[in-house]
Amino acid sequence: MPRPDVSPADFRRFAHQFSDIAADYLEKLPSLPSFPSGVNGESTQQMFDTNLPLDGLGERAFDMLSQVAQATRPNSPRFFGYVFGSALPLGILGDFYAAVLNQNVTAWRSSPAAITIERTVVRWLAEAVGCAGFSGSLTGGGSAANLMGLCMAREAKTSANDAGSSGGIIYCSAEAHMSIPKAAMLLGLGRSSVRRVPVDGAFRMDLAALRNAIHEDLGAGRKPIAVVASAGTVATGSIDPLPEIASLCREHNLWMHVDGAYGALAALALPENSAASTKPTRYLSIPTSGSTNPPAADACSIAIPLRPKKRLPIPRTTPAYSRMIRSRASHFSKSLSSSRVRSAR
User: Fold this and answer.
1) Residue 305 CA, distance from chain mean position
2) Which CA distances in Å does 164 have to 60, 152, 160?
3) Looking at the whole model, is its pTM more than 0.85?
């Protein structure tokens, strides 16, 4: 199989060709049906289920992009069924440049610019939802942000990173996102550890039912660890009574996790209803999602743990190669300097 090398001139030509294809598609996007017509499992299998090609298609690969578009649900203003919003074209260009840079965004030394930009964007969004002074991390979507928040909740309340999970109960409304029980399973707590609390007539978590569920578990010798409140549910956009839930969490020393993937950024319009209005519990994490807000070109959420200036209960490990770098910091600095010299040449 020949190497897919592309000269700078060819890359420039391909990029211009692709940008024309993308711009043509975006231009007609508002008029496309919300689901492609004539598309079914059999037709997509015929289009794409082929043998691995041993030779590249070259520029003929561009011809297949029209087939991909024809078998794709248009991400347009006509469709409201999924989490994805209709991205702004400028966000697409941002994704393009990020792919060009192709960074390993694991630590500042791996990608100084990307890490600093991440911290800045998280700070902006934290301030937008009334959480000025708090930090967080970008994730691949709301589900990952919920997993991160509940991982911190589990570690804060039942420390499992070293010896494994000893159990714990999580409470959420019957309208909560499906990622909550999935997170419980991934964290070793199990699906049975999630209490689906009934909702009221406005599809918000019923406070009396939540209190009764917590007391029942305490009476049975089980350990409640977290309450997941929704700031915008999937089906109706309902917002659970956040201040009252926060008060209940303080009363029982529970972690409060607010799933704000749908509605947390509404605090931009209603600052009086921001996270600050909950008078945060000792532990509070809020995912806000770019996947439901226009500027993002792809799913992106921010997990914001509200525990400033304290060590967060997150999974930590230091592999041998990282210890070597830390113990030989001067060598690492010299290698960075050498890399800069080589790049300059």
Assistant:
1) 14
2) 52, 14, 4
3) no
Of the candidates 85, 79, 95, the residue with the CA atom closest to the CA atom of residue 22: 95
In 3D space, the residue among 300, 230, 306 whose CA is nearest the CA of residue 266 turns out to be 230
Taking each helix axis from N to C terminus, what angle separates 207-219 and 242-252, rounded to the nearest 10 degrees? Answer: 20
Give the tens place of pLDDT for each residue, 197-237: 999 999 999 999 999 999 999 999 999 999 999 988 988 98
Classify strands 284-289 and 255-259 as parallel, antiparallel or unpaired: parallel
Asked whether the beta carbons of 226 and 197 are under 8 A apart, the reply is no
Q: 195 with 180: CB under 8 angstroms?
A: no
Q: How far apart are CA 189 and CA 165, in angstroms?
A: 7
Closest CA to 267 of 281, 257, 277: 277
What is the C-alpha separation between 283 and 294, in angstroms, rounded? 30
| Pair type for strands 137-139 and 169-173 | unpaired
Please choose, from the candidates 257, 298, 296, 293, the residue with its C-alpha nearest in 3D space to the C-alpha of residue 278: 257
Query: Which amino acid is residue 126, in one-letter code?
Result: A
Contact 153, 290 (CB under 8 A): no
Helices and strands per DSSP (H, E), number in the chain: 11, 7
Alpha-carbon distance of 206 to 228, in angstroms, equals 13
Candidates 180, 156, 149, 192; CA nearest to 287 is 149
pLDDT in tens, 129-152: 777 877 788 888 888 889 988 998
Which residues are CB-neighbours of 24 under 8 A, at least 6 positions away? none
Instruction: For strands 194-197 and 301-305, give the pairing.
Output: unpaired
Amino acid at 118: E
Distance CA 121, CA 91 (A): 14
> Token pair of 85, please?
């919003």
